[in-house]
């Protein structure tokens, strides 16, 4: 079993399969609990946020520039700017912030 990649891939495939199949097997009725339904509703958004937030800070030369851009993006999104406007504005803010900071 030492250094055999096929065993590792097989174990990974089985675990991935079980994670996806077990909920379908055990949960047959619709979920009626409001707390669980709202929790499951927000799971994709939280997962995307958890993956995106560190990348915003690490993608720039300076984490401060990334943080300034993040705040700018949050404010623009709060005031109903579309995704293209937010991305262009954040890119410009990062460019200017890195020019000033470094």
Automatic annotation (TrEMBL):
<feature type="transmembrane region" description="Helical">
    <location>
        <begin position="6"/>
        <end position="27"/>
    </location>
</feature>
<feature type="transmembrane region" description="Helical">
    <location>
        <begin position="39"/>
        <end position="57"/>
    </location>
</feature>
<dbReference type="InterPro" id="IPR008407">
    <property type="entry name" value="Brnchd-chn_aa_trnsp_AzlD"/>
</dbReference>
<feature type="transmembrane region" description="Helical">
    <location>
        <begin position="63"/>
        <end position="79"/>
    </location>
</feature>
<dbReference type="Pfam" id="PF05437">
    <property type="entry name" value="AzlD"/>
</dbReference>
<keyword id="KW-1133">Transmembrane helix</keyword>
<feature type="transmembrane region" description="Helical">
    <location>
        <begin position="84"/>
        <end position="101"/>
    </location>
</feature>
<protein>
    <submittedName>
        <fullName>Branched-chain amino acid transport protein AzlD</fullName>
    </submittedName>
</protein>
<keyword id="KW-0812">Transmembrane</keyword>
<keyword id="KW-0472">Membrane</keyword>
